[in-house]
Design goal:
single chain; mainly alpha; Glycosyltransferase; 26 helices; Terpenoid_cyclase/PrenylTrfase
Length: about 600
């Protein structure tokens, strides 16, 4: 990968000359020039300044040196102090290559001492960039050490992965680059943060970026893991394979869509090919270089943190159950059934079915008194009806119309030899409720396969709902082969950030439940999804903030959201409790 990428960069080396660029593109090319200069400098540092046997790196080195030697370039540092990093980075690269230049160094030192270039406001990762660049350039600055800046970085805030934008991820990756001196030192982590959190965060982001097919960020995140001393992990293997597949025969690796600003879009095809691929190709080359640089620190991959949130989940589930129980009393029957069913499911998950007894008792009274035909239960979702039946049984309650409906439904299945895959969950529920024998249920279930759930191009949340219905909330119904479900879990994980960021709580809950069923309850992405859902719970127990003033609209939205969220959290609670160990396909396996 490194050889191919560097060969492509060398073949396009004249593109990195700011003087040869169209005036509208000069700043863009200066940035590209410094980035390729850094790659050359890091390669030279690893080989003690030698490019023997590596003509492509030598050509890039000659190109960088030619530009850096020009007074028209070097003296810009005295005229454009806000761009100090560009020129300091250029000199840092030259210095790493063994080319000291006292005049260039003096110009940079004067800019730093001028009480502006080094002290105007910068976000933390840019401040770390400045400190690291001046360190490599050998320029004294008198500013606080990087360890004083690192605690304020986004990386060390251990952010929620479901909320990060691409620009946020770049801030995370660059923080790692500078804090580790590209893998040559171990950072002084702030109290409460350390290598396990950093690695877990980076691997989760790498998964998300692979699923978005963003080779630029995948390459940066792979570089970060190498900078932290991690050489091998399942996620790194997937990242390498992804980049190898993305690399073109000539060595170029294309960047993501939208990488060019609009004013630079209208260039010729060759320019666009270079401009949209140079950065990703540089980072791919850097990943290859870091993987073989013997000076890069090596250390064992730490075990990822595990969730300690069982108590929080139980409190949230109990509170939501109480709210849904009350809500089910005041809504029409068709709305009361899913509310009571969700409350019964939640109460069952914490081992106290009577928490939903009030809602179920009301449902029985209304059903038996007002429903003249048992078929009226058929208009309800199979999940909700089954949970109501389970809840009634656990509470010692009887509903004649529901009993009749279940009996009639089971009778309709008698004699059938096959059912649609979507009906598998219903068959399991009828078996568990004693309406179908084990033999009858097993015969019908043998005609179904979960693979059918993935036919067609359904949205991940839709697939997650179908999966939960098929499995009846039990991972054991999906088999024990975790690897078979890994790609499905990745799809769910990749869809979760958009669901959270666009405030689609039902989708987010469905995806979290799907991840729990697939053994990803402890995965960083799932845990951050759970944290997002918990942050949407009111003190009353309801979930969601509709941002509407109409009372009825607010109540309806919150009831629907609370049903979805409490069912998802109940599934996760069972996983944390050790009652769903059948699948374990998180990134560490």
């Amino acid at each position: 990968m490194e050889r191919g990428a560097v060969a492509w960069l060398a073949a396009h080396r004249t593109r990195f000359d700011p003087d040869a660029a169209d005036k509208r593109r000069t700043l863009f090319v200066r940035k590209a020039f410094v980035e390729v200069a850094l790659l050359v400098g890091l390669r030279a540092r690893a080989e003690l300044g030698s490019f023997d046997g590596d003509p492509d790196y030598r050509m890039l080195y000659d190109q960088v040196s030619a530009v850096a030697a020009r007074a028209s370039y070097r003296e810009l540092v005295a005229r454009d102090e806000r761009a100090l990093l560009l020129y300091a980075g250029t000199y840092a690269s030259q210095r790493l290559c063994g080319r000291r230049d006292s005049e260039f160094e003096r110009l940079i030192g004067r800019a730093v001492a001028g009480r502006y270039a080094a002290c105007f406001e910068r976000v933390p990762f840019r401040q770390l960039d400045l400190l690291h660049t001046l360190e490599l350039a050998g320029v004294d600055h008198g500013m606080p050490a990087d360890s004083a800046v690192l605690p304020f970085s986004l990386l060390c805030a251990d952010p929620s992965v479901v909320k990060l934008s691409d620009s946020d991820i770049y801030a995370v990756t660059h923080t790692v680059f500078y804090a580790t001196d590209f893998g040559r030192r171990i950072p002084r982590w702030p109290t409460g943060f350390g290598l396990p959190q950093a690695v877990e965060l980076l691997e989760a982001l790498c998964l998300l970026c692979r699923q978005k097919e963003n080779a630029d960020l995948v390459a940066e995140l792979l570089c970060c893991l190498l900078c932290l001393g991690i050489q091998d992990s399942p996620e790194m293997e997937r990242a390498w394979a992804f980049l190898a597949d993305a690399q073109e025969p000539d060595g170029r690796v294309a960047g993501p869509d939208g990488i060019l600003p609009p004013e630079l879009e209208n260039g010729d095809a060759d320019y666009r090919d270079w401009a949209t691929g140079y950065h990703t190709t540089i980072v791919a080359a850097l990943a290859g270089h870091l993987a073989r640089d013997e000076a890069v620190i090596r250390q064992p991959r730490p075990s990822p943190p595990r969730s300690a949130g069982k108590e929080r989940l139980e409190a949230a589930i109990r509170c939501a159950t109480a709210w849904l129980t009350e809500a089910a009393l005041d809504v029409p029957f068709d709305d009361a059934v899913p509310a009571a069913g969700a409350a019964a499911r939640a109460a069952r998950s914490v081992g106290e079915p009577r928490l939903a007894a009030r809602a179920l008792t009301s449902l029985v009274r209304r059903a038996d008194n007002t429903l003249s035909q048992p078929v009226a239960w058929g208009g309800q979702g199979v999940d909700a009806v089954a949970e109501c039946a389970r809840g009634l049984s656990a509470c010692g309650l009887v509903c004649e119309s529901l009993d009749q409906f279940l009996t009639d439904t089971a009778a309709a299945l008698t004699g059938l030899t096959a059912v649609p895959t979507a009906a598998a969950g219903g068959v399991r529920r009828l078996r568990d409720l004693g309406r179908l024998t084990e033999q009858q249920a097993d015969s019908l279930l043998a005609s179904t396969t979960a693979a059918n759930l993935f036919a067609g191009n359904h949205a991940p949340a839709v697939t997650a709902v179908a999966l939960a219905q098929y499995a009846d909330g039990q991972p054991l119904h999906l088999g024990s082969d975790a690897s078979a479900w890994h790609s499905v879990a990745e799809r769910f994980a990749a869809a979760l950030p958009a669901a959270c960021q666009n405030y689609r709580l039902e989708e987010a809950a469905a995806l979290v439940q799907g991840l729990g069923l697939l053994g990803w309850a402890d995965h960083r992405i799932t845990r951050d999804g759970v944290d997002f859902l918990l942050c949407q719970q009111h003190p009353t127990g309801a979930f969601g903030y509709p941002a509407r003033d109409d009372h009825q609209e607010r109540a309806t939205a919150q009831r629907i959201w609370t049903q979805s969220c409490v069912v998802a959290l109940s599934c996760l609670y069972g996983s944390y409790d050790g009652r769903a160990p059948h699948l374990r396909c998180h990134a560490a396996t």
